[in-house]
Structures are given as structure tokens and as C-alpha cells.
Please model this.
Amino acid sequence: MGARVELIAVGSQPHVVDRSILAASSVDVAPLLLNKLLVCADQIGRIVEVEAYGGVDDAASHAHRGRTERNSSMFARAGTLYCYLSHGIHTCANVVTGGAGEGQAVLVRAVEPVEGIEAMRPRRPAARRDVDLTNGPGKLCAALGIELSHDGLDLCSPRSPVWMADDGIAPPRRPQRSRRIGITKNPEPMWRWSIPGNPCVSRR
DNA sequence: CTTTGGATCGTCT
DNA sequence: GACGATCCAAAGG
Model:
């Protein structure tokens, strides 16, 4: 076993994340998703960076202008996967939170490879180092194999092609907190959380 | 190391 | 017709 693999923390037997913890507001849920596992087929990543997006009141949110065909899964029940195409190129993945119809979601901005890293490398040919495989919202979807067609899946079902697991590793007691990255509207709220010192957090 | 601009296309104005 | 919840290669210091 290589040294790289030994650096990856391993928790207890993973179980699916319960939908009830996702039913609160995205700002409350987001930091709780740190250290949860995002599972796509045989690829698994540990969530190390997230951003909260509010409903219609948050000008930075896709839900700000109400429900459309693109963002309709944002308005589904908590635990739904919302995927969208960014800049015509990259797929990004969100966890829907709050109550159905509210349009709240948490954007997964970075994960740390836990399983299937060999399959991730050819999916991310531009990544020169392993830390570059999944250190961005578009990068992690490419590495894990999350695609636009996965939009609307239930993350709270272990039989879903994409789901979310908990292996007993708690969120950090003191997550790093900052403003959200890459937005121009409503940039002030400190709605980005990451695991302090984790090498897979996206870079500024 | 940092900065800059191009890619690329669905969505909404 | 404009604009991204991004990424990357190239150029410059």
C-alpha cells in the first residue's frame, strides 16, 4: 500500500445520510456536510469544502428568480441532488436542503479522494497532482463521474447512482469560514465552510 | 509564484 | 444578446 493511501482517514462502516439532518436551512446544514462522503458508483470523496445558497432571497442563488426548468430540482425535497452546467463546460453538484419548494441548496466545492482514485486520474487528465483531482466544484464532478444526467437523484438512497454517506467522522469542531467564491451578487455573507488545512480545499 | 484571458453553451433577458 | 456558483494554459515577475 502506498504512502498516499495511508494518509486517508478511514471511519466506521458507512451508512446513508439521514434526510432529517438536511431539512434545516442551507446555512445550518452546510458545515454539517463537512467530512461526509459523496459516493458515485465506485468513486468516493470526503467533502472538505461547501457553500450555502439560500432560496429566492439570496441573489447569488440559482433559485433567486424562482423556479425554472433548469433549477427545478432545487425546489424538490431535502436530499435531492441538484446538478447544473457551469460556463457551458463543467458540471457542479448541490445537496438540496430545507423544505420542499424553498429552493435552498449546498454546493459541494471540494472533496478528498477516499476510494477509486485510480479511476479519477484518467477522468482529470489536466490534474498534475492528486490534490488537483477534486479541489473544485467542476473538478470533483469530473473525477467522481457525476454528470448533468444525475440531476434530481435522491442522495439519501444507497441504491442511488449518487448518494451521500456518513462513516462516523464528525464535522470539524471549528471549520474555516469565509465569503463565497466566484459570485458577484450578494457576496457578503460568510457562507463558505472548509476543513482547516485540508490540501484538497480549492485555491483562491 | 501570480495574473490574465479564452473556452463554450444553456439559460434567461 | 449577455452572462455565468469554472478551469486551465500561457505569460510575466
Summary: Residues 103 and 159 of chain A are 25 Å apart (CA to CA). The longest strand of chain A covers residues 104-115.
